[in-house]
Amino acid sequence: MRLAVLGAGAVGSSVAELASEYGHTVTALADSTGAAADPEGIDVAAALDAKREGSHPGSADPDDALAGEYDVLVEATPTTLGDAQPGFGHVRAALERDRHVVLANKGPVAERYGELRDLERASAGTVRFEATVGGAMPVLSTVEDFGADHISAVRGVLNGTANFILSRMAAEGLGYEHVLAEAQDLGVAEADPTFDVDGTDAALKCVILANVLRGNGREYTLDDADVEGIEEIPGSALELATEDGQTVRLVGEVTADEEVRVGPRLVPQNGTLAVTGTNNIVQFETRHAGRLNVSGRGAGGPETATAVLADVGRLPEL
Amino acid sequence: MSDSTDEVRAYTVRLELVDEPGELLRALGPIADNGGNLLSIFHERGNVTPRGHIPVEVDLEASPDRFDDIVDALREAGINVIQAGSRRYGESLTVVLTGHVVDTDLSDTLSRIHETTQATVTDLSLSAPEGTDDESSARLRLATEENERRATIDAVRAIADEKDLQVIEPLSGGDQ
Fold first, then answer.
1. Is residue B174 part of a domain?
2. Closest CA to A258 of A157, A158, A152, A156
3. Is residue B44 assigned to a domain?
4. CB within 8 Å: B137 and A153
């Protein structure tokens, strides 16, 4: 397949880098300032070098990437809330040209799922978005394989930054601010970690899961989620939890009552959900097969890129 | 991917022990040997049953399968198991409250939980490393009926909201 990659951050760059290993050709790599585009395939290494040195991957107009030659548009620009622009516009443009779309950007699937599906129905292209939930972990494809009707509830730890902070606070008895600063030094937390610690990122993932699980019924957006973060949790709360054989994790849920909830929860210290560090886990309650756990790396460039490329591999020929 | 059946729950077992040295230890052996995690032991030394036995209440955590093994092992060891399981106390529910727990009148918080829910506060731990007029945390163990779990948490949340406290609730849908 020929891929046009929009977004040249950690995920977009990794997709471009790994594409040839998966047997695909990158015909464009663009960020908001510039693009490298060539219908025969761009020189990915040169584009990434140019991005590192000159801050954009090429001198072409970013719009040329969207209008150029490709079978699959990989939308890996930063997630935006509300109207989910410009990501949503990119998806619309590709579908209207009957191209496939693979999303790493959560905005369009979390905030405008219904419209997105309508556009897909009117197009010969297909939309896939495994990378939007749980990085490398096969979360949405597990739902797809099992069948949404056979899954009654889903819960999980879906934000590595928040999980790192809570694990460190519990293990070392350190305060929130201290551990957050440490996480930023290590590159685990971004300079602005707001969406990670206030629960928004985990909530977006749960909203996407809810949309997929309840695809033919109610449509969810971030506004439908009940979200609490971890910013106000003192070290003493983790200490009390530990004394009781428990710990605190930022858990996101799509409940059997079809509610979306994210907040700090008490979980048994040695339980399945108490993953440590930046690890993620998703737990499915299935109707006929008990509980199913999927765990692994929920973020990171190459990790998330593998989910994007797995989606590309699932697409039908145009 | 893996499936998991290690759903751990809290149970209360009520035993009546013969008043002889070593009996308590003998009763606890089968619990530990079968993978139960002891939470608390209430040994009513002064409260003897008409038969002269000593009532002991043990709270423990175990998966449902292991719990059945524990009860069988206790009976095999000749221990009198009077009540086993969650029938009597329903569910034991732990929540942690954080924020200005103490200077928003902790004792009022507790009495209002008593008044507005069917639950009983059975245990309370407080941690206030910065002093009681700063942010602190309180862990409450509540005994409640199984079907009252959600209502109890909602009631605790309503009281906490009013006092600007954050509630860290246990995960619903079983304990993972």
1. no
2. A152
3. yes
4. no
Does B162 map to a domain? Answer: yes
Neighbours of A291 (CB within 10 A): 19
Query: What range defines the domain where residue B57 resides?
Result: 9-85
Query: What's the predicted TM-score (pTM) here?
Result: 0.81
Which of B69, B85, B101 is at the close of a domain? B85
pLDDT band of A215, cuts 50, 70, 90? low
Q: Residue B78 is encoded by which pair of tokens?
A: 């000749």
> Any idea which residue has 């129905």 for tokens?
A121
Same domain, A269 and A196: yes
Nearest to A291 among B3, B136, B171 (CB): B3
pLDDT more than 90, % of chain B:
36
CA dihedral B84, B90, B96, B101 (to 10 degrees): -120
- Highest mean pLDDT (candidates A10-14, B15-19, B70-74, B129-133): A10-14
Interface test mutation site (partner B, options A254, A269, A291, max chain B beta carbons within 10 A): A291
Nearest residue to A77 (alpha-carbon basis) of A149, A148, A131: A131
Evaluate if residue A173 carries a pLDDT over 80: yes
What CA–CA distance (Å, rounded) separates A220 from A218? Answer: 6
What pLDDT score does B3 carry? Answer: 41
In the predicted model, what is the mean pLDDT of residues A160-178? 93
Residue A129 has pLDDT above 80, yes or no: yes
Q: Can you give the residue range of the structural domain that contains A71? A: 2-135+301-314
Inter-chain touch A243–B125, beta carbons under 8 Å: yes
Three-state secondary structure call for residue B149 = helix
Q: Are A275 and A281 in contact (CB under 8 A)?
A: yes
Residue B104's pLDDT is what?
93
Question: Do B99 and B33 share a domain, yes or no?
Answer: no
B66 and B18 in a single domain? The answer is: yes
Q: A291 with A159, same domain? A: yes
Alpha helices in B37-148 (DSSP H): 64-76, 106-116
Do A254 and A210 meet the contact criterion of CB atoms below 8 Å apart? Answer: yes
The residue in chain A having the minimum alpha-carbon distance to the alpha carbon of residue B164 is: A232
| Residue A120 and residue A127 in contact, taking contact as beta carbons nearer than 8 Å | yes
Q: Report how many domains make up chain B.
A: 2
Q: Does B164 lie at the interface with A, CB-CB under 8 angstroms?
A: no
- Smallest Cβ–Cβ distance between B173 and the set A155, A246, A268 belongs to A155
Q: What is the pLDDT of residues A73-113, one digit of tens each?
A: 999 999 999 999 999 999 999 999 999 999 999 999 999 99
| Whether residue B101 is found in the same domain as residue B126 | yes
**A205: annotated active-site residue:** yes
